[in-house]
């Protein structure tokens, strides 16, 4: 990996070039050591087996290529074990690829693992100077930025304490403060931001917004709203390979969500007063057994209940969650407490012109004896449904609107 110091603020030059990058690992330690010894010899003569798997080897990263310019942010997404961390470590120079090339121009700031790059026995202040020196800054340059780093990290009273006594949140604060305030040409951010509190995360994103025009950012997260918030291109990794790559970040996120199934139905509360026997959605279209509605269709939900002891019709809330289990909305139905007979009861609930964005959703139903009070029955993830639309969007709502214009 070449690392050339260059900083041209505001220009759009290429800062990261990755060409057919590949890295393989061995599942067996003894075999891995033996392969390592053989590779020391073959590398001297020129390794012609760099793209060939040997017994017990697998590709952690395979043929990954992309170009990242100043002002661009690449989102790396995929489930655990997809190869994201391996790729980041190659980009940061921590491990060498077996094949392919990486060219990074300029200073690199990295937040790959919690506390990575910190010496635990040194204080926070001393680690700031160490990290700054690794990035290529002089002592005078670090002196000029020291107070801004301490203020951003919000740990001034602990700055002279050994880092080994820091909490995980304090390490994230200090690590991001150093990486961001040093204004690197390339910033690599792994899932570490998930450790911080909400206020600090918002502060980090505001900082990324500020430095992004002058920086190339590689961002890894399982939080898709975060990815959509800052990334203008994405790579979806699956078993080390790029399953999707492009500027359509919403499509990449939609493919990511499609790999996860909704949680199974679970009754979490049953008072014995009423039971919910079945839930169905009225539609004539299904996909893999899931009811499919088009955007702005009417959502018609049919419930079959068995009333055991209730004297009046209960209140019903339908909570709807998206693929990431974010709350997308709640439907509340009030029946003015009319009397209810014992035995089987059929109830139809209608929500007109549903405006959820494309994707799969699931429902949790809570039945109350009184208005949002005295819950008597709850079942999670009892029914899934899919919304179809030609627009890719990570947001739960895709709201209809009208546009009016006139010429001046």
Automatic annotation (TrEMBL):
SUPFAM superfamilies: P-loop containing nucleoside triphosphate hydrolases. InterPro entries: AAA+_ATPase, ABC_transporter-like_ATP-bd, ABC_transporter-like_CS, ABC_transpr_TagH-like, Bact_Polysacc_Export_ATP-bd, P-loop_NTPase. It holds the Pfam family ABC_tran. Keywords: ATP-binding, Nucleotide-binding, Transport. Gene3D superfamilies: P-loop containing nucleotide triphosphate hydrolases. Residues 35-264 form the ABC transporter domain. Belongs to the ABC transporter superfamily. This is ABC transporter domain-containing protein.
């Amino acid at each position: 990996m070449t690392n050339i110091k260059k900083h041209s603020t505001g220009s759009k030059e290429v800062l990261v070039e990755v060409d057919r990058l590949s890295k393989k690992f061995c599942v067996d330690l003894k075999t891995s050591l033996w392969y390592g010894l053989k590779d020391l010899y073959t590398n001297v003569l020129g390794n012609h087996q760099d793209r060939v798997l040997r017994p017990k080897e697998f590709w952690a990263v395979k043929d990954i290529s992309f170009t990242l310019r100043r002002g661009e942010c690449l989102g790396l997404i995929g489930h655990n074990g997809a190869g994201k961390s391996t790729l980041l470590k190659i980009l940061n120079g921590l491990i060498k690829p077996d094949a392919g090339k990486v060219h990074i121009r300029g200073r690199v700031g990295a937040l790959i693992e919690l506390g990575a790059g910190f010496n635990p026995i040194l204080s926070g202040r001393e680690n700031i100077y160490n990290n700054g020196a690794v990035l290529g800054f002089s002592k005078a340059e670090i002196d000029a930025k020291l107070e801004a780093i301490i203020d951003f990290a919000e740990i001034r009273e602990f700055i002279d304490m050994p880092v080994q006594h820091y909490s995980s949140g304090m390490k994230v604060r200090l690590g991001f403060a150093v990486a961001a305030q040093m204004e690197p040409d390339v910033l690599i951010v792994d899932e570490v931001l998930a450790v911080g509190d909400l206020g600090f995360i918002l502060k980090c994103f505001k900082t990324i917004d500020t430095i992004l025009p002058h920086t190339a950012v590689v961002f890894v997260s399982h939080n898709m709203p975060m990815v959509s918030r800052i990334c203008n291109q994405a790579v979806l990794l699956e078993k080390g390979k790029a399953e999707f790559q492009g500027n359509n970040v919403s499509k990449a996120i939609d493919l990511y969500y499609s790999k996860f199934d909704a949680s199974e139905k679970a009754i979490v509360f049953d008072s014995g007063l009423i039971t919910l026997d079945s839930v169905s959605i009225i539609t004539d279209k299904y996909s893999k057994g899931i009811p499919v509605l088009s955007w702005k269709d009417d959502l018609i939900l049919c419930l079959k209940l068995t009333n055991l002891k209730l004297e009046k019709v209960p209140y019903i809330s339908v909570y709807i969650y998206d693929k990431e289990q974010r709350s997308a909305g709640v439907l509340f139905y009030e029946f003015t407490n009319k009397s209810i007979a014992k035995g089987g009861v059929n109830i139809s609930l209608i929500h007109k012109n549903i405006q959820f964005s494309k994707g799969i959703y699931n429902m949790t139903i809570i039945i109350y004896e009184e208005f949002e009070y005295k819950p008597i029955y709850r079942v999670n993830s009892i029914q899934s449904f899919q919304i179809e639309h030609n627009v890719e969007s990570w947001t739960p709502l895709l709201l209809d609107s009208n546009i009016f214009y006139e010429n001046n």
